[in-house]
Amino acid sequence: MKIEEYLSSLPSSIINGDDIELPDNTIRDMLKFAGLQEKDVFYHLGCGTGKGIAIAVQEFGVKKAIGIDSNKTKILEGQTFLKDKHITSGSLIHEDITISDMNDATVILFWFSDEKIIQTMTDRFKKLNPGCRIITIWGPLAGHMPDKVDFPFILNITPFKKAESLRQQMLAIFDTDCIDFAVAWEFADRYSKAISSRDSENDRFLTILQTLVIWINAKNLGVACGDDIPDPVKSYIGILKTFFNIEVEHLLK
What would you measure as the largest C-alpha separation in the chain, in angstroms? Predict the structure, then answer.
């Protein structure tokens, strides 16, 4: 089956990230990356059970921390979690993030895969006060250049800088003149480690998929190193097809 068919066969909660909560250490790394300070007002969009809010308050001492999530069960669990930890400057809201008020935000953690949500929120972020930092994972906000990169963490700061092309975005993210297999694997591995628990058995499979996605996108944008398909890429394409019945060759243009 084509990789699109494989992804569509997975539970929607996995694809849209509803069942994925970032590890605590990853959240800490992201908040350090954003330079979170005591004077900041922090919003975590898609906060789950609110561990990011607890970390922002207890370890970074932010003035205020707000978590927003559409999953009522997780919000209720998170509210109990914050209460048990006696956190009063952090709160959780059960709400659709596309209509939430976040005008006082100075730092926002935003990690979603739904393109409609990303575009809607990007338009909303543009209206926030100058200097607001938006932390994302994997890629910058659609159509805009990153202000800071420590892959897989990306930072956009308002007002946003328009990207001339996806090619320009990609080269800025990977900080290189061209992308070979080694670069694609290194960055895919960073992503896998950031979003997975340390004992995850699926890390290598995810890394293979993401490596191929990175390299194929680079090839299609004309920023891959060389004209030929590297032998490791050929090998992993074959492994996916032979052992997992997943076909990705059609993505090459």
Answer: 59
Nearest residue to 58 via CA among 75, 30, 80, 36: 36
- Same domain membership, residue 233 and residue 133: no
Please state, as a whole number, how many other Cβ atoms lie within 10 Å of the Cβ of residue 220: 14
| pTM of the entire predicted model | 0.86
Cβ pair 1, 246 in contact under 8 A: yes
Helices (H) and strands (E) in the chain, counts: 10, 9
pLDDT digits (tens, 9 = 90+) for 112-166: 888 899 999 999 999 999 999 999 998 888 889 999 999 999 999 999 999 998 8
Of 7-11, 86-90, 116-120, the one with minimum mean pLDDT is: 7-11
Query: Which residue is listed with tokens 């299609």?
Result: 220
CA gap 99, 121 in Å, rounded: 9
CATH assignment of the domain containing 53 = 3.40.50.150
For 143, other C-beta atoms within 10 Å of its C-beta total: 14
Residue among 136, 127, 62 at smallest CA distance from 101: 127
